[in-house]
Amino acid sequence: MSAHAPVRILYQSYTDPALHQPYLSRLADYLAGIAAPGVSFEVRGISPADTQLGRLSELRCSVQSIAGIVEAEREGFDAVLVGHFQDAGLFEARTAVDIPVIGHGEASMHQACMLGGRVGIVSIDPVYLPWHHEQIRRYGLESRVVDVRCMQITPDEAVAAYDDPAGYEAIKKMFLDAAQAMVRESGVEVVMSAGGLFALLSATDTDLQLDGAMVANPTYLAVRQAELAVSVARATGTPVSRGGTFARATPRAVEELLTLIGRN
């Protein structure tokens, strides 16, 4: 395939198309607006959405996500961006397909480390604090992503704030309070939300300022990494090393997963 051929990337959200369509429509518009020339994004969700926050819901959604990623490869997509900061099922998904699979959390945290020496992230809920610390260790970023704080909002509250200016201002205050505390107490130089909901909610807010630090949009950073991953895969002929961590799953293993959730 030509290195300059058009690129199709699936954005696999963990929100429900039936319940969160306003968010998904806005997300599709945002992606279309920031995509590089020749790159198109398609947004798909999961039903039911990841609203029962916790490890069990992450596991269930990750299985559905992997099935969707397998289907995306079969449909001819060039890559998948898993639009869920927790990156549930990310490593497993990479073993199941021969296209790049980019994790929202992994990609944005690594990219943020190129913007400043000390990075902090703000989650939507305390339930994710242990998960984010595990991600940081898994990605080898303990000395760079140095602080994790949280707001306390539900995904539904975040989605509702798209049409509720007062609701957005309340969420924005929670984010900035947590972010400024990290700057003051941990010397953080770059702050970003741990997820796409607030990232999209605040994407056009030019007043999202901190004293002594920058606010980075994790979705924008992850999109750029996804586009780059396609270029790298086309140049090298492989999306990842198959030597160990991402050793290719057998076709039977992939089919068994699809059968498990009735997608075969």
Report on this model:
One of its GO terms (molecular function) is amino-acid racemase activity. This is Hydantoin racemase. Belongs to the HyuE racemase family. This protein is of the alpha/beta class and 264 residues long. The chain has two domains: 139 residues, Rossmann fold, CATH 3.40.50; 113 residues, Rossmann fold, CATH 3.40.50.12500. 47% of the residues lie in helices and 14% in strands. The strands form two sheets. It has a four-stranded parallel beta sheet with strand order 2-1-3-4, sandwiched between helices. α2 runs parallel beside α3 and α4 packs across α9. The protein starts with 6 loop residues before the first strand and ends with a helix.
Entry summary:
This protein is an alpha/beta fold.
How are the SSEs ordered, and which strands pair?
Elements: E1 7-13, H1 21-34, E2 39-44, H2 55-74, E3 79-83, H3 90-96, E4 101-103, H4 104-112, E5 119-123, H5 129-138, E6 145-150, H6 155-160, H7 165-186, E7 190-193, H8 196-201, E8 214-215, H9 218-236, H10 251-260
Parallel strand pairs: 1-2, 1-3, 3-4, 5-6, 5-7, 7-8
Task: State the main characteristics.
Rossmann fold; single chain; Hydantoin racemase; alpha/beta; globular; 4-stranded parallel beta sheet
